[in-house]
Every structure is written in C-alpha cells, then in structure tokens.
Amino acid sequence: MSANVELTALLADPAQCGAYYVDLHDRAAIAEAAILLEFALVAIDFKGCADKADALDRFAGALKFPEWFGDNWDALADCLSDLSWWPAGGYVLLLDHVDDWRERAPADCDVVIDLLNEVAEGWARARTPFWALMPLPADVLASPPE
User: What is the set of domains in the chain, with CATH numbers?
Assistant: First the structure.
C-alpha cells in the first residue's frame, strides 16, 4: 500500500512531471493512482504506428482534440498545452507500445517525447501535473532508447 501512496504523491507533484519510461508492470498502479487523484487519464496505443500522421491521429482521437487541431507538431503542442475541453486537476497520458512506434519512426518518436517534456514544463509552471508515461517491458526498459 505504501508504494501506491508514494506513487500517488509523486504523480501529484507538478515539479516532477514530464515524459518518462516506466516499467510495464507498474502501468495498472499508475492508472489507479491517477484515478485516485481524479486526474484525467488516457491511454494512447502506438502499436503499429507508422509515421507522423498516424501518431497525430492517435493523439487527436484519444484526447478528443477540438476541430481546430491542425495535424502538425505545433498544433499537438498547442492542444496538449491547453486541454480546456478536458478540465482536470492533472493529466496522465499512458503511451502504450511506444517501443514499437520508435522502431518504425524513431525521429518522430523523439520529437514527440521532447514536445511532451516541454508541455509538461508549461503545466508545471501552472502547478498542474502533466505526465506522459511510456510503459515498457522490463527487458526493453533495461536499455531504453537514448
């Protein structure tokens, strides 16, 4: 139980938020902690994600982006930095199978991870936790991409 208390405390701290690789075995506990905190929680599945357009579609669909979403990296950053259509005390994005996406489109994946960290910094300044967590199997997590 103390691990969940510690995890909940960590997720509640906007100073710690960002984009992180996490152990796949911790995925359920992370989701449970986000729900306990009454944070907005969404899973985005990147299995088979082939390219930028596909990744943008997956973000837009999962997060129910508004019609003005422009299908480019800047628009993704704008939508993730706003989220006014989805008010919450914090946000947790679970990016599932990101390792599969990275194999197919490493440059696009890197751009999104950088973008997610920048978005998290903006939310942290507003004192709102924003997490983009990428659950990976232990063997993959042991040597994550650089």
Answer: 2-140 (3.30.370.10)
